[in-house]
Amino acid sequence: MSAAGRVVLVTGAASGIGRAVAQAFAEAGDRVVVADLDGTAAGRVAAELGALALPLDVTDPEAVAAGLERVAGELGPVEVLVNNAGIVAGGGSLVDLPIEIFDRVVAVNLRGTFTVTKVAAAQMIEAARGGCIVNISSIGARQPTAGLGHYEATKAGVDALTRTGAIELAGHGIRVNGVAPGPVHTPMTAGLMTDPAARGAWESRIPLGRIATPGDITPLVLFLASPQAGHITGTVVQVDGGQLLV
C-alpha cells in the first residue's frame, strides 16, 4: 500500500489504464485527481472513486497551470503524477499519414506529458517534500509496428523525458520512471479487440499469449510511486507479456 493521503494526479483517467490507475490509488487511501479532457466522464469516475474531477486539456499550458493551481488549493500540491493521457488518432505509413494527425498525437502524448510534468514538478519543488512521476509509455518506443510510427515516436520522446527528468529532479527528491505496456484491452484498442484477425495477429507476437488488461499495468505504477521503489529512478519497465523478447 502506498503512503496514505498523498495527492495523486492521473491524466487521461476517465477510462482505460488511467481509470484503473486512479481507482488503485484511491483504494490505497490516496487523494486522487481524475484529470481528463472529457470533463463529464471525469466527473462520473471521480464520483465513483470519491476523487476530485479535473477537466483538463494537457495540450493547453494555461489550462494545465490553472488546473494544477486548483488542485493545490483544494487538496494541496501534487505529490504523485501519472502522465497517462495519450492518443493514437489513426494509423498510416510515414508517407501517407496526414500531418494533422501527427501534430495532434505529438501535442497530446509528448507535449502534454512535458507540460503537465513541468507544472507538477514545480509544485513538488516548491513544497520541498519530494515526489514521484510515472509516465505511461509503450513498447512501441522500442519495437516498431508499420503504420504506428507517429505514435511510437511520441513514446520514444516520453522515454527520453523520463530519463532527463530523473536526472534533473533527483536533487529535489523527485523520482521519475516509466511503464511501457504492450497492447492493452482499453477503449482505445476496442476495434482491435473485436477484430479476430487483428487480435490474433497481436497475440501471436506475445509469448504469454494474451493481450494485457489495465489490471496488469496498475501494480507496477503503484510500486514505482511507492516508498518500496525509493532507489529507482530513470527506468522504463515493460509490461508486455514478453513481446520485446521476440
TrEMBL record:
Q: Which SUPFAM superfamilies match?
A: NAD(P)-binding Rossmann-fold domains
- This protein's UniProt keywords: Oxidoreductase
Give a single Pfam family match. adh_short_C2
User: Which superkingdom is the protein from?
Assistant: Bacteria
One GO MF term: oxidoreductase activity, acting on the CH-OH group of donors, NAD or NADP as acceptor
The record's section on InterPro entries has: NAD(P)-bd_dom_sf, SDR_fam
- This protein is called what? Short-chain dehydrogenase/reductase SDR
Query: Which lineage ranks, top first, belong to the organism behind this chain?
Result: Bacteria, Bacillati, Actinomycetota, Actinomycetes, Streptosporangiales
